[in-house]
Amino acid sequence: MVFYLWLSQTRASTGVKGRTQNEQAGNVYGSPVHLADLEDQSINESSGIVASRRNADLFWTHNDSGDGPFIYAFDRQGKRRGVWKITGASATDWEDIAIGPGPQRGRSYIYIGDIGDNSNKRDEIIVYRVLEPLIASEDWSSTKKSPRNTSPADVIRLKYPDGKHNAETLLVHPSTGDLYIVTKVMGGSAGVYKLRAPLPKSGVTTRIAEVRFSSRTIGLITGGDISPDGRRIVLCDYFGACEFVLPKRQGVAFDSIWKEPPVLISLGTRKQGEAICYTADGSALLATSEGLPCPLIEIPRRTKE
After folding, report:
1. What does residue 170 show for φ and ψ, rounded to 5 degrees?
2. In 3-state terms, what secondary structure has residue 36?
3. CATH fold of 2-300, please?
4. What is the pLDDT of residues 198-224, one digit of tens each?
5. Number of C-alpha atoms within 13 angstroms, CB side, residue 174?
6. What residues have CB less than 8 Å from 190, skipping those under 6 apart?
7. pTM
8. Which of 91, 115, 224, 298 could bridge across to 169 with cysteines, CB 3.0–4.6 Å?
9. For residues 79 and 75, what is the distance between their CA atoms, to the nearest angstrom?
10. How far apart are alpha carbons 104 and 101 in whole angstroms?
11. What is the pLDDT of residues 49-83, one digit of tens each?
């Protein structure tokens, strides 16, 4: 499966019924709103973001390569809500974070993708899976120098079936727990790789789809998320985002979503956008950017399905 994607903040090609893709996106999502700048100055390269499922209106992020195995909690006003060190993890090149089911039924798990490989030299990539912490008010004062500790992480070692790839996008399906990785490719077809749940301690992913870009200077996918209802996927690059929506027809397999035409979404101004997620109720998107100050941007959804 191959489709062509044009992520641009300027003019888009003509879409369905004569409307541009940007106009279609305008009917789905509202204008980006700068909610706040993140208070914790340790978050200087926000490379992934996900909405908490155990802690209302709180979110998790992490830094890109160069930081330790830490995840940072914050609220909608950008206020710090604590720092956790992932027990049993190291950080080579953390690129994205996701949330979903895991081994214990009814529990929420955080997945962290140590999947960056700019030089295409890693023999394996790693995804860490850990039970999501429940945050108490006394945790808010924890810092990178004095963090809380998570429960021991599961270490999932992965390989691609067709060589080595750089990737910055990790997705976990909210119902099945299936794991997806989208590679970061300049001027070619980015691969969508899947590992079915229950996830083994080590495994080889399967290439299930391709994303081919129509420009050599845009479309480097840097982050993504699956909506809480499991019917939408959002992917972002440095400048904007696009969304895929699964048809409502009965019996439609989730993986057919990659065949659907993407709709463009404006994310406003970001220095280097590498992180995007849905809110816990799916009513909006949230995005951050690398660099300081780190903005927290919300893009509300106008339509309900």
Report:
1. -125, 130
2. strand
3. Neuraminidase (2.120.10)
4. 999 999 999 999 987 554 445 789 999
5. 18
6. 182, 183, 184, 210, 211, 212, 213, 221
7. 0.91
8. 224
9. 5
10. 8
11. 999 999 999 999 999 988 999 999 999 999 999 99
